Amino acid sequence: MVKSKVINESTYISELAIHGMQEKKGNELVRLDLRNIKSSVADYFVICHADSATQVKAIANSVEEEIYKAIQQDPWRKEGLEYGEWILLDYIDVVVHIFRTDKREYYGVEDLWGDAEIKSYKSA
């Protein structure tokens, strides 16, 4: 019974992150469902990109605000805020990646998790 609660919570957090990305016009939003991959580090990766460091930071702020507003949870860790090329917001079971366009292409995070179920979302 506890496991389904955790999965539901991580799904909800991932949906909140997607909404935060959509609010600030993140590009090519995807959610990778990693729950059926034994070696995964989280339930979901939520990924998008933007053309400027300013927009990357704005998206990260929007994601944090949406999640905090809904469940009063801050990220466990935050990385990359200084340069705004790749910001990572770690919510333990949900890891949010916000890239500057060229960095997303360079790192190819989606390609590293080829077994994941990938769902795409439209920007708002």
From TrEMBL:
SUPFAM superfamilies: Nucleotidyltransferase
Keywords carried by this UniProt record: Cytoplasm, Repressor, Translation regulation
Main location: cytoplasm
A Pfam family this chain is assigned to: RsfS
SUBUNIT field: Interacts with ribosomal protein uL14 (rplN).
UniProt xrefs under NCBIfam families: rsfS_iojap_ybeB
Membership in a protein family: Belongs to the Iojap/RsfS family.
Name of the protein this chain belongs to: Ribosomal silencing factor RsfS
Organism: Mucilaginibacter pankratovii
Encoding gene (name): rsfS
